[in-house]
Amino acid sequence: MHIRSSALVLAFALLLGACGGGGGGGTGPVPPSSTGSISGQVTAGSTAVPKAQVALSGGGTQTTNANGQFSFSNLEPRSYTLTLQLPQGFTLGTESATKSVMVTAGAAASVNFGVRAIPAASASVMAGNDNRFSPSAVNIVRGGTVTWTFGSVAHNVIFNQTTGAPTNVPIVSSTTESRTFNSDGTFPYVCTLHAGMTGTVHVHAP
Ligand SMILES: [Cu+2]
User: Fold this and answer.
1) Ligand 1 centroid vs 201 CA: distance in angstroms?
2) Which of 47, 80, 106, 188 can pair with 33 through a Cys bridge, CB separation 3.0 to 4.6 Å?
3) Which chain residues have CB less than 5 Å from ligand 1, an ion?
4) What pLDDT, in 10s, does the model give residues 20-59?
5) CA Rg, the chain, in Å?
6) Is 2 a member of any domain?
């Protein structure tokens, strides 16, 4: 192996010498790459997952960047295994923590992980004087609670569907109201006093 690559280098040197004439600092022919790379991304739905650890068999661990991306380069062509470790707030869901990938010379293999965000136990929504619910959509775990904070302008919270939804919040101002959601699903709601003042609570299984 070692002898063989030395022989290759020698052959290249001879080749350069033979046709190198006038150049002086020319770069010469670029040999085809003998290594490959792996790159990928960790996402939870449409959200990138930064600070995930991706370990490569045979050495090396990368931490995903702000876009959930990672990459390994200069890899000898062969099969590798990637092992994913998620930061807090995320779970694998149906995704597997380890994936095999074949690296070939001169090519970039792509390996992506699609995981799931663990929904929060509670969420807060402002029912402000601008006649908006903010944020307009929240995600909580089943059994979790949403608290609405009302300013001096009066609003209500009326759920579009009653099955699985908690009781409506009557017209109130300058107070907070909390509701617990015990059923999975999507629960849209409106303030009937202000056209277009709408919100949604997404309730997820733990
Ligand atoms: Cu309102």
Assistant:
1) 17
2) 106
3) 155, 191, 193-194, 197
4) 334 444 566 767 789 999 999 999 988 899 999 999 998 7
5) 28
6) no
